[in-house]
Amino acid sequence: MKLATLRTAGGSTTAALATGAGSYLALPATDVGALLAQPEWRLVVEKAAGAAASREQKVIAAGEADLAPLLPRAGKVICCGLNYGDHIQEMGRELPEYPTLFAKYADTLVGANDAVEVHGSGRVDWEAELAVVVGSELYRADEDQAREAIAGYTVANDVSMRDWQNRTLQWFQGKAWDGTTPVGPVMVTADEAGEHFDVRGYVNGELVQQGNTSTLVFGPAQLLSYISQFTTLRPGDLVLTGTPGGVGMGMTPPRFLKDGDILTTEIDGIGRLENQFRIHAPVPANA
């Protein structure tokens, strides 16, 4: 099944089940994360689908709502850097023994088609990624337990402010900007998703990134298991798995997004993000 979080005409949000007809069934939760927090969330979705068949459940046409951030209140957003062999090489590093992790906040997340406003960075870079949605609580889990806890997969772009990221050895200040991380358009449940995914990124229609998650150094279950050794993962948490080669900072010369550019991120079988960037004048380097 494919689940989305929709903004409705009244300004509220609702979790929804995507149908093959291009419409959605409203679900009894404000967003996908709130839905996953219900222990029997699959039964909730099945009941809604059954009610729709008897016309007792609200159907939302595609034009009646737009895509909100999939997990607008994610308790944890944890990202893995340097997880594709080709990207590690273009950044001049060796294969890691352990995952390189950093965190974002829910404030960083935007919807699949939202405009992205950037104030204060002149080196805005792209990082197309597969993201994993946690479906049940994990703490000190092994890989099998972690695999069972995956609710599904979605598309993300870990947009990075390289000028801020490179000010220090810690990446946090270049990664956690409000409203700059597109996620969506849907979560495809793990039982319907494939094992490996083609990940692609485009700038104004030009293919700049392409990779397959079969080449990840640390796969989704490995990442969730590793993270759970030191922090509890809960339903609705989000883990970004890293980006393939082709980021702007790795190009010669380096290339970054400009005001008005369209960044497209897509993963076959899951969906597509398309976000226009509005980049405002950067602050002085010594700010």
Secondary-structure blueprint:
Layout: E1 2-8, E2 13-18, E3 23-26, H1 32-36, H2 41-53, E4 59-61, E5 65-67, E6 77-81, H3 85-90, E7 100-104, E8 109-110, E9 116-119, E10 124-125, E11 128-134, H4 143-148, E12 150-157, E13 160-161, H5 162-165, H6 172-175, E14 181-189, E15 198-203, E16 206-212, H7 220-228, E17 238-240, E18 262-267, E19 271-280
Parallel strand pairs: 6-17, 8-14, 9-19
Antiparallel strand pairs: 1-2, 1-5, 1-14, 2-3, 3-4, 6-7, 10-13, 11-12, 11-17, 12-14, 15-16, 15-18, 18-19
Task: Report the structural category.
Answer: alpha+beta
Note the gap between the termini: 47 Å
Kindly state the number of beta strands. Answer: 19
Total helical elements? 7
Low-confidence stretches: none
Estimate the mean pLDDT confidence.
93
What spatial form do the alpha-carbon principal axes imply?
globular
Report strand %.
Answer: 25-35%
The radius of gyration over CA amounts to: 18 Å
How would you sum up the major sheet?
A: 12 strands, mixed
Helical fraction equals 10-25%
The secondary-structure element order is: EEEHHEEEHEEEEEHEEHHEEEHEEE
Question: If you had to describe this structure to a student in words, what would you say it looks like?
Answer:
The chain is 16% helix and 34% strand. Strand 1 (2-8) and strand 2 form a beta hairpin. The longest helix is centred in the N-terminal third of the chain and has 13 residues, at 41-53. The mean pLDDT is 93. The strands form 3 sheets. Strands 1, 2, 3, 4, 5, 6, 7, 8, 11, 12, 14 and 17 form a 12-stranded mixed sheet that branches. Strands 9-19-18-15-16 form a 5-stranded mixed sheet, with no helix packed on it. It starts with a strand and ends in a 7-residue tail after the last strand. The protein contains 7 helices and 19 strands. The protein is globular and about 60 Å long. It is an alpha+beta fold and 287 residues long. It has helices at 32-36, 41-53, 85-90, 143-148, 162-165, 172-175, 220-228, and strands at 2-8, 13-18, 23-26, 59-61, 65-67, 77-81, 100-104, 109-110, 116-119, 124-125, 128-134, 150-157, 160-161, 181-189, 198-203, 206-212, 238-240, 262-267, 271-280.
